[in-house]
Amino acid sequence: MAQATTGSTARAVGGFLALVGAGVMAGMVWGPWITGSGESVSGWDLHQAATGSEQWYVEHFFGPDFSPFFPGRTVLWAAAVVALFGLGVLLSRSGARGATRGVLLLGGLLALGVGVVDVLSIALTGPGPEVAYIDWGLLGVGGGGIVGVLGLMMATSQPRKTPGTGWI
Question: Number of structural domains, the chain?
């Protein structure tokens, strides 16, 4: 019975998913992240309003308590890393092994962390939905991060043999 490998197909689909996730993350930077009092603020608005190192990372986004937040510029860089890794996976001739696989997964997890930390920071430490609530742009950043890391995980998974059709 002939055996077919799923490695190249999984790598292609995973690389494509990583590119889609990165595109969603990048596009959502300009969507509404936080809405309150009838006004919406995008991730890029937050980046432009910040100064110095807060353009990359804000340690106390909601008051003096620890409430980490990554503005639009950081999300764009995270999306660029996932897109670069996804494109590299699509263009590679063989699967990732060893340290290369680890770097790809670490980059994907860091990008996922950027989106998820922003959503959790507002949900857990924010002023509450009666003052400001999470809007679709920030949820899209988190969703794009999830799709991107799932794509990189799929692309770096070990190929498996599946039974094919053939002569008996």
Answer: 1
